[in-house]
Amino acid sequence: MSTHTEKHLSEKDAVTTSVLPEDHLKDLNAVEDVILAEQSYSEEEYKKLRWRFDLVLMPIMMLTYGLQFADKVSLSSGVVFGLKTDTNLKGDEYSLLTVYFYSAYLAGQIPMSFVFQRLPIGRALGVTVILWGIVVIGLGLCHNYLQLSMCRVLLGWMECSVTPGFLLIVASWYKRSEATLRSCMLFAMNAFLGGCFNVIIYAIAKKAAEDGGIAGWRAINFFLGSLTVFAGILVLVFVGIPNDVWWLSKQRKTMAHSRIISNGTGDAGRHPWDWRQVKESLVDPQYWFIVLFNLTATIPNGVLTTFTALVYTGFGFTPLQSILYQLPANAIGFCVIIASAVAVTYFPKSRFPLAITWTLLEMIVFLYVGLAKDASKWQLWAAFSFNLVLSCATFLIWAILPLNSAGRTKKSFTGASALIAYCAGNMIGSQTMRASDAPRYLKGLTANAIVMAINAVILLSWWIYLMRENKKRDQAYETSGLTLEERDYQNKIAGETDITDRQNPHFRYLC
To answer: Which residues cross the membrane (predicted)?
Structure first.
């Protein structure tokens, strides 16, 4: 180990070798080389490199993420184009298809996180996306409830790693100040590509109805499945962390790694599973805020992904109109997500206030649509066109999940737990809209508005906790005698040697 490293590790309140995992002590020389390399390149060189992986990684991940949402709402669109009739669905069997999807999505989180931590993450994601596309094609071949149920289970398992995997990849390439905008660019594809696919779905279903050939809902799944297989091939070939991709030279891989070490969270490289970090997560207050937030934020999401088209038809629109008239909602959702991400990029402290604001706005929308008795269908349509604003709060918070947790296993376990809560919330949400409550679903919409109020309280409490935690750490730093340079250096050492955020006193939370 060099003299420089020994000096910093011996300082008061430093991340000492007694805290470092024993199997990582041998890596300290390599870690210091990466830290020193950070100063070897100019800001202009870093900017050019960032543009390169912006142009390679982001379009592929944006397409893939948008397809994930399109696959979910294809069930909602398909039901107005004959899916229920063609497969003889009865009673609540349709809503149970969403439960099967999220049950498998939930069950796959920990096992897939365990596997992805031992494999090149880009390759593993590519294979799962290809398999997911094949399952979507299979959905178009189903003829009964059993076949649909089996495909929905497989689809949930294949899709479960996409969100946590992409968030880890973003955190492995981008600085903390850059990550929120890139993550939200992925998430905004739910709205943007959702709108584009609604137009395509409308055209496919309309032509199928006019020609009297293949059913519209089958054509929708064949189209989306084929496009997903193509996207999976692109992910397999191009996506990964800096050290794994083929399209960067060795020097540029070092540059890409060194520019994000100030995050203090490491990258999504392969690491052995560390059960100590799992135990730490379970006693970390932030972990439980994450779980509770994801549970309450996604109960309404279970309504939107499954029942949106049916809510529009409940207003009095035809099945084809219910697809077209969702386009303004997609446009509003896209603009709000991107605008919020830009705001957070320039005003980092606006993240939680914005998330709370959008949650309360959506609560008002659900209350109005659920309780307004004399409103016209156009008034209800105008209000419900803001339904995707709800997802903005979730996406602003999801963007910081891998940036507010350090330690490879802790990040994986926390991300998996967040998605487990996400699944549970979506399953609960899909069951709040009962067939007996159709066509307006007044009880379900009102109940979900109450859940949003609870979610806003959780966000406020979490925000206060993170601010207090940062304040305590700042006070400890002021009395430690360390210089700012020494603190930053030790934070980088901790991040590169798999130290968790709670073990590292120099880590600061984004809030």
So the answer is: 51-70, 99-117, 124-146, 152-174, 186-205, 217-241, 287-315, 327-347, 354-372, 378-401, 413-433, 445-465
Helix (H) or strand (E) holding 415: helix 408-431
Among 32, 434, 86, CA closest to 261: 32
Domain count, the chain: 1
Answer yes or no: is pLDDT of 250 > 60.
yes
CB 388 within 8 A of CB 191: yes
For every residue of 237-273, DSSP letters joined together read HH-S-TTT-SSS-HHHHHHHHHTTGGGSS--S-----
| CA–CA dist 113, 106 (Å, integer) | 12
For residue 157, pLDDT beyond 70: yes
Confidence grade of residue 433 (pLDDT, cut at 50, 70, 90): low
User: Within a domain: residue 6?
Assistant: no
pLDDT at 3 over 90: no
| Largest Cα–Cα separation, the chain | 78
- Sign of the alpha-carbon dihedral angle for 313, 318, 323, 324: negative
Coil, strand or helix at 142: coil
- Of 452, 471, 413, the C-alpha closest to 290 is 413
Lowest mean pLDDT, pick from 108-112, 209-213, 414-418, 482-486: 209-213
- Specify the pTM: 0.80
What's at 510, amino acid-wise? L
Q: Which one, of 359, 405, 363, 370, lies nearest residue 503 by Cα?
A: 405
Residue 297 lies in a domain: yes
Q: How far is the CA of 259 from the CAs of 31, 111, 179, in angstroms?
A: 13, 31, 13
Domain assignment present for 511: no
Distance CA 133, CA 221 (A): 9
Collapsing DSSP states into helix, strand and coil, what is residue 24?
Answer: helix
Angle between helices 377-384 and 351-371 (to 10 degrees): 160
CATH code for position 367: 1.20.1250.20
How far is it, in rounded angstroms, from Cα 77 to Cα 71? 10
Residue 399 has pLDDT above 80, yes or no: yes
Q: Would you give the DSSP letter of residue 196?
A: H
Q: Alpha-carbon torsion 486, 492, 494, 499, what sign? A: positive
Collapsing DSSP to helix, strand or coil, 120 comes out as: coil
Task: Assess if residue 68 is contained within a domain.
Answer: yes
Instruction: Check residues 403 and 430 and name the one with the higher pLDDT.
Output: 403
Predicted local confidence at residue 235, as pLDDT: 96
**In whole angstroms, what separates CA 63 from the centre of its chain?**
14
DSSP secondary-structure letter at 318?
-
Range of the domain at 437: 37-496
